[in-house]
Amino acid sequence: MPKDTPDLLPDAHIDAARYEEMYAASVNDPEGFWGEHGKRIDWIKPYTKVKDTSFAHDNVHVKWFEDGTLNVSANCIDRHLESRGDQTAIIFEPDDPNDEAKHITYEQLAKEVGTFANVLKECGVRKGDRVVLYLPMIPEAAYAMLACARIGAIHSIVFAGFSPDALAARVNGSGAKLVITADGAPRGGRVTELKDNVNKALLHNVLGTRCLVVKRTGDQVAWVGGRDIWYDDLAERVSSDCPPEEMNAEDPLFILYTSGSTGQPKGVVHTTGGYLVYASMTHEYTFDYKDGDVFWCTADVGWVTGHSYIVYGPLANGATTLMFEGVPTYPDAGRFWQVCEKHKVNQFYTAPTAIRALMGKGTGFVEKYDLSSLKLLGTVGEPINPEAWNWYNENVGKGTCPIVDTWWQTETGGHMMTPLPGAHTLKPGAAQKPFFGVQPLVLDPTSGEVVEGNGVEGVLVIADSWPGQMRTVYGDHDRFVQTYFSDYKGYYFSGDGCRRDADGDYWITGRVDDVINVSGHRMGTAEVESALVAHETVSEAAVVGYPHPVKGQGIYCYVTLMNDETPSDELKKTLSDWVRREIGPIAKPDVIQWAPGLPKTRSGKIMRRILRKIAENDFDSLGDTSTLADPSVVDELIENREKG
Ligand code: WTA
């Protein structure tokens, strides 16, 4: 435990009394509460219906503000022009610190997005069409998102670290008309050839998907005539004025693929009205954002955190948001702090894995920079361990910046549980309190009964809908119902476990399904398994997470080879590279252990619980192995355990 925790922020939007009052209102009268707070954004036609939602297993549906109309890009741009046209909307900090940063005002943003929207139209994109973005962290990524929103197209961003195969699956899965990419993506001093990856991904494309290319590096790229278009060529010809499309509150805004417990990523669908209300409100209250503040979320727009807290939440609030193209350790481990000093960042939001990585490099890199502009720090993506929390608090926040530990998910659109910096005395490592409208419950994992009282642990479910909730799995509503509303009927099941302590504060204990969290990136172990068994030498594979000092969790693979294959270190490397190529660098295995046999029940189900314990080096609590078809495989695996 730290010596102290930072004091609450004075003059915050939400103090303790106001939190209690607003929280009570939000759960006692959701219609009244959200009916009022829905007005924080601009509507073309105001809503009269606020909430129509049901978590009943046979009738799951989620609709908010359903008869209202609006446009998200008008909310993020046009409505600010009169009062803050000259204010910086986006600060772009490039990968190379010697290249110049850009300050894009709201006025300029309006022109850029208008132009981009007209370019999309020129490419034949219409309302309701899907557009895949596969881009570096450059302002054009934000322009493209907002341009889609402006004309009512649905964007689906694929993180630029994903492989051509993963990209192809997402292009096909969403039936995308267009992929927007760049020639290359500089990151950490190296360049990822994005256009090359798109070429590979579109090789077998039967949808007639076209490719719009933004110039970033100026590198030579292989071109397919008739399919590929330079952004600049069209941008020169079109007007910068594009009126916003009037969208219904429940029209989809974006699809974002995310990992679950099966091999196939799910297309999480978020819609227009509820999402924007929720993203903007959480951005303002959780970070205590005030006019004129510079807000920096270090995520990539390829993840939900980038959607909600680099682009939509901040811009809807008229904020100045920082987009950083690089990585925390390039050119050295002081980069984050150098950027904080340079742009006088007020709120800084990052992942525990980044903090742990920087912690390992010593305090010298932090001490070099003036961090006095910082008022608040945040974390997201995984539980934060006390050492990392203390380091962040003492060295970055200098003991004076509250740290908001925000628990949420791609599916939730915005923060679900977090301390509010003016209301809640912090507990390092705890997500603490539900945001307005969020009703967390702890269930007994076996009986599914609600566990009442404090000092309890179980699985975390949410009892009722909130406006930022995902609406469906793209093209597969049954899967939505199956995944989130079937294990515990009547509730939204988060997939996380949690503890409610003696004071009623919440602590997230980690996933209870086969999803792991590697460097804050969410990954289904089944995805890695399907990549492994797709290799000709592999007959069977089981993948689990294990504690990793920097990544949070590492990827531990048990691999059974085909009969005629000989295990070797070389083959391990081949398989590791193979997974990296199939999914992307973030999925590269940390450990591969040869497994002549896997522990299975008599019905053939792999007992992952046991594999997890072995990978964790925890042999004393293997539990009952007597139900295994062949208990001796366990001894064999223990004997040959690989060090992570
Ligand atoms: C985990 C990221 C503990 C959790 C926004 C969740 C966290 C998954 C926290 C969602 C936190 C996220 N403390 N665990 N503050 N934030 N998680 O969809 O397991 O990429 O279910 O969304 O990350 O990951 P996703």
TrEMBL record:
Annotated binding of CoA, by residue: 187-190, 305, 519, 580
> What GO terms describe the biological role, i.e. biological process, of this protein?
acetyl-CoA biosynthetic process from acetate
Q: Which reaction does it catalyse?
A: acetate + ATP + CoA = acetyl-CoA + AMP + diphosphate
Q: Gene Ontology terms, cellular component aspect?
A: cytosol
List each copy of the Acetyl-coenzyme A synthetase N-terminal domain by range: 19-76
Q: Which UniProt keywords apply?
A: Acetylation, ATP-binding, Ligase, Magnesium, Metal-binding, Nucleotide-binding
E.C. number, please?
A: 6.2.1.1
Q: Which residues carry this modification: N6-acetyllysine?
A: 605
Which family, according to the similarity comment? Belongs to the ATP-dependent AMP-binding enzyme family.
In Swiss-Prot or TrEMBL terms, this protein is called Acetyl-coenzyme A synthetase
**Gene label:** acs
